[in-house]
Write a structure and sequence with these properties.
Strand content: 15-25%
Radius of gyration: 27 Å
Cofactor: [4Fe-4S] cluster
Keywords: 4Fe-4S, Iron, Iron-sulfur, Metal-binding, Oxidoreductase
GO molecular function: 4 iron, 4 sulfur cluster binding; metal ion binding; oxidoreductase activity
Structural class: alpha/beta
GO cellular component, one term: cell envelope
CATH topology of one domain: Barwin-like endoglucanases
InterPro entries: Asp_de-COase-like_dom_sf (IPR009010), Mopterin_OxRdtase (IPR006656), Mopterin_OxRdtase_4Fe-4S_dom (IPR006963)
């Protein structure tokens, strides 16, 4: 027998496993961090975690490289050269906090609005908003205004929740799953797992997207729609369902405002408003009595057909208005086919498939439940058709109404909160009525008068000063974008630079790479950040920035507060914010320092606590002047938003021991979370897990969990009365009136029933000169700006070509290795191209955020990301091109203000290949220098 080498077939994997929450994307998966000698050895999924059940993607596994990235900032930095030079000196935290306090405290005492505090993807918005509110500035928001506010706001105004973190398909029961505009970077593990279960059961998946990549590539049927026409396509499906009578009339009557009466007298100042009784309750006609009754009255049977006349005014059900609109010939498949790029025959076939599955394959669960009218049901009836949508339909100037159209479609089918359909995740569903309205009243030295963000109910809630000018620097909640529930981060720098509506003193941002890929008009924003006035002073006097890495934005800041990596800090994934709930359970989670930083850095939230303590902000300070909390971990455990309700729902102190949801702070709470794998879960009883908005069992469970203070049953708003109130103002009614130049736009776009209109850029550029749609998608292996500086992930996406469809490829004679000049009304880029057949014939696209500025992220100056990677952002602007009316209109949705990234139109021509992509920017001098050629280290023996 030959001698065999001695192999250790069972090597010691790790000394210890520490369980926490991933931060490589928005999934918030559970991870097991394997440690050797106190260092991270590798990362795997946590099989006990409710989100990913052990599944982990490439991003999650690559977290070890994120933690060890050479681009990590090492200490607080003070700028010593001109902005953009990258010249900094390292300083202590004491000095950094003194500098920040020296800038901020005078503002707080004299003019709090001169601080603009905007945060990126921090996942702690309940805390950062609390900090800003106690500082007293009205100028706070997170990244949602340039990401997904259309989706979130449209869902909440229509049905009390939306896709993404708000809900999910009923993966175990759905039989037809239809996705719209879904990229691969968000919620990817749950979606991949769900798609696997759906396809394993033989259910059909239909993908609607101009680009067939990722989830659309595994769909059974792909609809390569023309960008910006999803709403028109959806309403054509609605037209066909109405024409065929394939809608759920019982569901519409009982659970929506379809039977609610509407004032139909065009001469009335209340025209279009909903009818109410003396208690403010919405009125329907009861089929039993034939008389008006409150919609939620015990035993009432709402009538979808009966009209009612009072004081000479005819009131008709919403259902009448809905049917009249969408059965109109303008929504017929033949009328929309050419514009959508989808044949009339195919539209009809998809509508027929939706109807067949919804009504011929219904699901009936033997689960008894009681609704809010007191009626007990023996079963739950489900329409097994489910939908999911993301930024692809949201980031258009018609995105809000498109998202509402999709919610209309699924509600007409009766497929929301039923077996097989779309299901809400706690703390949703929530009616609009229990959300806050926005607040903007500034009092020097005092907190703001209420939450910055919220959901307006009408013109009375707009954030306007007494003279009618915007109260916020981003012009959120104004006549230009009245329902901007997430603020408008993409407009902050350009408005501050212009001094419109006023000048600011300090721009304070966190993880928002506004000097590169997180901004529209990249070159212009760089110029704004470095521009000086006639006295040679910067137009924006002070910029404080926090990030974990040496991003492009660092060079344009005056003071850097270095953040930790996600493995080195406390985070709270809270029910007050964006939790990790599933449809069957409430859940939240933490991150905790599984390793201590080896650099002089602090978690951003802790840095905010320290700043608050130095300034003695009201909500952070006890009556005796002492600090309430020493750091963010202390805040997580001991802060109470209201009595008994804190950031974490698990293991609170009750009268008889530990409890969940409501309870007093527990000093051992974080320890208990860590022992439980970093998360908490409380499952909903099966008989309460569906029909949540109307199921009194769920409503009472939600009260016990602290999601509501009292039961909050409600009906879905197919007709959004809030929007009608803005239309009425534009028609000349009410005390608050819009400016003349906005009246027609408000009347056209703030329609209470979902409507489609062409993307605004189509009306500002010549479609003959710019015939091609241009889009970006975030790749599955990237999140935020991160990924292309991760030593593992950049091997997947180190460069990004512009993908061209066959029609454009052949018309221009392109071949492999060619380059193209791409021109918009705003700018020009020269980039490598590649052929892609599975692409809408008039659309080009590329991966977003691959391109990096030379010198940033510790990359070599000739790194492929800096020479062959590029951004489409250079072709986009925060304002639309002039159209001869003397105005510059925002490149945003007119309802919410969401950035219309995906309205871009371009022209393309073949060009000689340069050495690198254009435009080029001078290299940034990075405070961390350049990383090594190879990353090598040994963990353990």
């Amino acid at each position: 027998m030959l001698d065999q080498p001695k192999l250790d077939t069972s090597p010691k994997v790790s000394d210890e496993v520490r369980k926490t929450t991933c931060y490589m994307c928005a999934c918030r998966c559970g991870i097991n961090v394997h440690m050797k000698d106190g260092k991270v050895a590798y990362i795997e999924g946590n099989r006990d975690h409710p989100v990913n059940k052990g599944v982990l993607c490439a991003k999650g596994s690559a977290g070890i490289m994120q933690h060890n990235a050479p681009s990590r900032l090492r200490a607080p930095l003070k700028r010593v050269g001109p902005r953009g030079s990258g010249e900094f000196e390292e300083i202590s935290w004491d000095e950094a906090l003194e500098i920040a306090t020296g800038w901020l405290e005078p503002l707080r005492q004299e003019a709090p609005e001169k601080l603009a505090f905007f945060t990126g993807r921090d996942q702690s918005q309940s805390f950062t908003s609390f900090w800003a509110q106690n500082f007293g500035t009205p100028n706070y928001a997170a990244h949602g205004g340039f990401c997904s506010v259309n989706m979130a706001a449209a869902g909440i105004y229509t049905m009390g929740g939306a896709f993404w973190e708000f809900g999910q398909p009923d993966w175990e029961n759905t039989k037809l799953f239809m996705i719209f505009g879904v990229a691969e970077d968000h919620d990817s593990n749950p979606i991949k797992m769900g798609l696997g279960r759906v396809k394993e059961r033989g259910a059909k998946v239909i993908g609607v997207n101009p680009i067939r990549s990722g989830y659309n590539a595994v769909a059974d049927e792909w609809v390569g729609i023309t960008p910006g026409t999803d709403g028109l396509f959806i309403l054509a499906l609605v037209h066909e369902l109405l024409r065929a009578g394939k809608i759920d009339l019982r569901y519409l009557a009982e659970y929506t405002n379809a039977p609610v009466l509407v004032n139909c007298d065009a001469s009335s100042p209340d025209h279009g408003l909903l009818m109410r009784d003396e208690n403010g309750k919405l009125l329907v006609i009861d089929r039993v009595t034939g008389e008006p009754a409150a919609f939620d009255k015990k035993g009432v049977k709402p009538d979808l057909s009966a009209s009612y006349e009072k004081d000479g005014v005819t009131h008709r059900p919403v259902m009448h208005l809905l049917a009249e609109r969408y059965m109109g010939k303008e929504y017929a498949p033949e009328a929309v086919a050419e514009r959508c790029g989808v044949s009339a025959r195919r539209i009809r076939a998809i509508a027929a498939e939706l109807a067949r599955v919804a009504f011929e394959e219904e699901i009936v669960l033997e689960r008894e439940w009681t609704d809010f009218r007191g009626q007990t049901h023996k079963t739950m009836v489900g329409r097994p058709v489910s939908f999911h949508a993301m930024r692809g339909i949201s980031a258009h100037s018609n995105g809000f109404q498109t998202c509402r159209s999709l919610h209309l479609l699924q509600i007409l089918l009766g497929s929301v909160e039923v077996p097989g359909g779309f299901r809400f995740k706690p703390p949703y569903p929530k009616p609009v009525s229990i959300h806050p309205t926005p607040h903007c009243k500034v009092t020097p030295g005092k907190p703001l008068d209420g939450p910055h963000l919220g959901f307006v109910r009408g013109p009375e809630d707009l954030a306007l000063k007494e003279d009618g000018t915007p109260a916020r620097i981003d012009k959120a909640f104004t006549w230009e974008n009245p329902m901007s529930a997430h603020g408008m981060m993409h407009m902050v720098i350009s408005n501050a630079h212009a001094g419109d509506p006023y000048k600011i003193d300090t721009l304070f941002m966190y993880m928002a790479n506004m000097a590169w890929n997180s901004t529209m008009n990249t070159r212009g924003v760089i110029d704004m950040l470095t521009d000086t006035d006639e006295d040679g002073e910067y137009v924006i006097p002070h910029i404080i920035y926090s990030d974990a890495y040496s991003s492009e934005m660092v060079a344009y800041s005056d003071l850097i507060l270095p953040d930790t990596t996600y493995l080195e800090r406390h985070d709270c994934i809270s029910l007050l914010d964006r939790p990790i709930c599933e449809a069957d359970a409430a859940a939240d989670a933490i991150r905790w320092p599984v390793v201590e930083p080896d650099r002089d850095v602090k978690g951003f939230q802790t840095a905010l606590v320290l700043l608050a303590n130095k300034m003695k902000l009201p909500g952070f300070t006890n009556e005796d002047g002492s600090a309430k909390w020493a750091d963010y971990a202390d805040y997580i455990v001991n802060h109470e938003r209201k009595p008994g309700i804190g950031p974490l729902a698990g293991w609170r102190k009750g009268e008889d021991g530990l409890t969940h949801g409501r309870g007093a702070p527990n000093e051992d709470q974080l320890k208990t979370y860590i022992e439980n794998g970093g998360f908490f879960v409380n499952h909903i009883a099966k008989e309460h897990a569906y029909m949540k908005p109307w199921n009194m069992g769920y409503q009472e469970w939600a009260v016990g969990m602290g999601l509501y203070d009292s039961p909050q049953p409600y009906i879905f708003d197919l007709y959004a009365e809030t929007m009608r109130k803005f239309q009425l103002a534009a028609e000349g009614h009410g005390e608050r009136q819009p400016p003349e130049h906005l009246r027609e736009r408000i009347k056209a776009t703030l329609d209470p029933l979902p409507v489609w209109y062409p993307p605004f850029e189509d009306g500002h550029v010549d479609p003959v000169e710019y015939p091609v749609h241009a889009l970006t998608q975030r790749p599955m292996a990237m999140y935020h700006s991160w990924g292309s500086q991760n030593a593992w992930l950049r091997q997947i996406h180190g460069r990004n070509p512009l993908y061209l469809p066959t029609k454009i490829w052949e018309a221009n004679g392109f071949a492999e290795g060619d380059w193209a000049r791409v021109t918009s009304a705003h700018g020009e880029i020269t980039v490598p191209v590649a052929h892609m057949a599975a692409l809408n014939e008039n659309t080009v696209w590329t991966w977003n955020a691959i391109g990096k500025r030379k010198g940033a992220w510790a990359l070599e100056k000739d790194a492929p990301e800096a020479t062959k990677g590029f951004l489409l952002n250079h072709l986009i602007h925060e304002l639309l091109p002039p159209k001869g009316d003397g105005l510059r209109w925002a490149n945003s949705d007119p309802v919410t203000g969401q950035a219309a990234w995906f309205d871009l139109r371009v022209k393309i021509e073949k060009t000689a290949a340069p050495d690198e992509v254009h435009p080029t920017f001078a290299p940034i001098r990075s405070p961390v220098g350049t990383g090594p050629d190879e990353l090598r280290w040994k963990v353990g023996k």
